[in-house]
Input
Amino acid sequence: MKNWKQYTLIVFMALLVFTFIGCDPEIKYVDKEVPDPTLIFREATINLDLNGTARTVRVEGTLLATEWNGLADKVKTAIQNAYSTTGGSMAGNFEDVLNRTGFTLVVTKEDYPFYRANHGFTLYLNINKLNDADWSEKIIEAMAKMISNSYPAIG
Output
């Protein structure tokens, strides 16, 4: 008889424990994406030389520190190289776009080929494409679309 009482007590305690620890089949566990604490908003100012005319442009992005290091210089070089390959009215278009009040270059990890422009004051650049050989050509294309107000512009 003693074993029966012990067995009943153990079963009762187990049921009581499972009730309090949440053995509820209705609970659904969802993996939550924990943001990387080093993925923060960063910004820099680059000084461009457009045929002797200085232009100051803001570069920004929400990136890891390792992604951001040296990025402003890389963007500056890409813009300078693209500008140096243009001539005539296209060079003027570059100057017009870069001289707009509040013009900003935003470097992102978004899923588009090279760039995106939704209005004439912000040009989004894909960080994964900044080392591509035809990047200068794409910057020239983006500037042309921005000057002609062809939005949304994705290329």
In short: Helices lie at 2-21, 65-68, 71-85, 88-98, 135-147. The chain has a mean pLDDT of 77. The first helix runs from residue 2 to 21. The radius of gyration is 28 Å.
